[in-house]
């Protein structure tokens, strides 16, 4: 039984590794809405069985980042414009709850951690939009983590990732300066302890993000999934064969 438990933990670790890699690839818009995720290609890239790859895809489907279609075909989810708008509306209400819980209750260490994260956002301003978007999203997940509420952490993380996905479909160029300034204002309000002010700031911030994001569909582009995922695999597994070329997914989009 101990051996079975150990094997179970190993499989769970592998599933988690694949989920984290695919999630980040989606957030950074390397994998775009509609991109196919073949189990055999994922298994080969991550050095795991198709069964483990299937379990990882199932977990991401539960998070709304992947769609499972007939004949075990998995693709990056393609939300409609209305689904994208609904996701942002739900996110606004969830994150208002987050800051309501945190206002006036953060330690100096926590405030410093938030400040350091925004400093990292500042340092990434002149880099790729996708990196800025990922860091901006992780700021909100960091806030949720500080509530120590498993439910809020889970739902805020999932809805934030879904909102990232919509940026690949409906967006203007990402405004990192706006995000950074608004994040600093949120930190100041949280430290000040004014619940109503910080809830209003969070509402306005995310509503502005949605306004900047939900604009128009982007154009498609084509890349091979083995090449796309190479930077997201800690120890890349040498490809034994090249999978069939994928249909062209969608072009980069940003917040």
Strand content: under 5%
Annotated CATH topology of the largest domain: Four Helix Bundle (Hemerythrin (Met), subunit A)
CATH top level label of the largest domain: Mainly Alpha
CATH architecture of the largest domain: Up-down Bundle
Top keywords for this entry?
Arc Repressor Mutant, subunit A; Four Helix Bundle (Hemerythrin (Met), subunit A); 2 domains; about 65% helix; globular
What does this structure look like?
The protein has helices at residues 2-27, 39-46, 50-62, 81-102, 108-123, 129-146, 150-166, 176-192, 195-213, 225-229; strands spanning 66-68, 74-76. The protein is an all-alpha fold and 255 residues long. It has two domains: 2-77 and 220-232, Arc Repressor Mutant, subunit A (Orthogonal Bundle); 81-213, GntR ligand-binding domain-like (Four Helix Bundle (Hemerythrin (Met), subunit A)), CATH 1.20.120.530. Helix 6 (129-146) runs antiparallel to helix 7 (150-166). The longest helix is centred in the N-terminal third of the chain and has 26 residues, at 2-27. Residues 236-244 and 249-255 have low confidence and may be disordered.
